[in-house]
Amino acid sequence: MQKLKQIRQTLSGNYAVAYAVKQVDVDVISAYPITPQTTMVEKLSEYVATGELQAEFIPVESEHSALSVVTAAAATGARVFTSTSSQGLLLMHEILFITAALRLPVVMAVANRAVSAPINIWNDHSDAMDQRDTGWIQIFAESSQEAYDTMIQAYRIAEDLRVRLPVMVNFDGYILTHTYEPVDTLPDEHVKEFTPRVKPPFRLNPDEPVSIGTLAPPDYYYEVKYQEINAIENSLPVIEEVSKKYGDLSGRYYSNVEQTSVNDADIVLVSMGALSGTARHVVRELRQHNIKAGLIRLRLFRPFPIKSIIDLISDAKAVGIIDRAVSPGAVGGPVFMEIAAIMKLYGIDVPIVNFIAGLGGRDVTPSDIKYMFDELQLTAISGKPKRPVYYIGLRGWNP
Q1: Dihedral (CA of 31, 33, 39, 42) sign
Q2: Whole-prediction pTM value?
Q3: What does the CA dihedral 171, 131, 82, 140 come to, rounded to 10 degrees?
């Protein structure tokens, strides 16, 4: 296959996402600006104002309205986009459920940010984790390049008639949204060819009236919710298929669960988002000292890639899960609880440890990652962790 000529641009994560949305040629954009997402929608409004993108840009007074607008527009068959962050995503909470249950292919970028209180504009994953039960497909990007690539894939996944679900593309606030890196972009015609328009199975049309989102009494509600559950569970092979086809086009292949040196690893860390780059760097350093460390990077969070996780962690001697969010009163962070449940259900007898790190933009350094691997080494030797949850970098906490 002849190598596709791509255009290398220096883009921030926000601009990379906006550029992908322009190339996908959406019909309707509605968003309410919130730090650190703001420059993304500013760039999109500029595209519309200059005529580079023929779309309706609808300013609204809140994030609740922004998602309501694109949900309604998607119901008419329009290709739509919105984006938000932190409290804005929480304000969308009610409509997130509705968009998924109506099986509308809305695509949203979330610049991940901590939630209040106290007020904090820096990165963690609290906002996205709070929405994990709303029925949206959730993908976490590690870099601005991946955020660009994932946005294009998201439309193909969401609009696939085997899926018909909204997709949330998460990428770390400030760490990616406001830093610049070289991003290889596809020619417009190839993006257009990769994301063909799909005729929706139903839509609001005055010539063929239908009702959407009507009352469902107990005789019907349960079955409708099960169809939604079934759809997101069955989306897994479609996500893999789209990723493979995108890789064939761009040369950049992504897996739902990416691994570094896991095959023969004794101690394994699980991470998400941009933090994974730091963890990968530490793994390579440890390998130079003959320490069998490995890294699993979760790219897909919903649907949760159960089988891939089982295959990668079963032979380890200790596994650590990094959560950049908390679940107060629970046994650990959200990702930790997912993996702990899998291990119990599938009989995987490997000691696991939860590392809470990076809340509210707190730096997670290579030394922090090294400390986690040190604890995993002790856990592997003793066969059980000293404690189930570690709070990395927290002042006044003595492990």
Answers
A1: positive
A2: 0.97
A3: 20
Only one residue has tokens 């994974």, namely: 276
Quick one: 278 exposed, middle or buried, by C-beta within 10 A (0-12, 13-18, 19+)? middle
> CA 385 to CA 387: how far, in whole Å?
5
Quickly state the pLDDT bin for 397 (edges 50, 70, 90).
Answer: confident
Assign 3-class secondary structure to the chain.
Answer: CCCCCCEEEEEEHHHHHHHHHHHHCCCEEEECCCCCCHHHHHHHHHHHHCCCCCCEEEECCCHHHHHHHHHHHHHCCCCEEEEECHHHHHHCHHHHHHHHHCCCCCEEEEEECCCCCCCCCCCCCHHHHCCCCCCCEEEECCCHHHHHHHHHHHHHHHHCCCCCCCEEEEEECCCCCCCEEEEEECCHHHHHHHCCCCCCCCCCCCCCCCCCCCCCCHHHHHHHHHHHHHHHHCHHHHHHHHHHHHHHHHCCCCCCEEEECCCCCCEEEEECCCHHHHHHHHHHHHHHCCCCEEEEEECEEECCCHHHHHHHHCCCCEEEEEECCCCCCCCCCHHHHHHHHHHHHCCCCCCEEEEECCHHHCCCCHHHHHHHHHHHHHHHHHCCCCCCEEECCCCCCCC
Question: To the nearest whole number, what is the mean pLDDT of the chain?
Answer: 97
Question: Rounded CA gap, 361 and 121, in Å?
Answer: 8
Give percent of the chain with pLDDT exceeding 90: 98
Q: What is the mean pLDDT of residues 146-160?
A: 98
State mean pLDDT over 64-89: 98
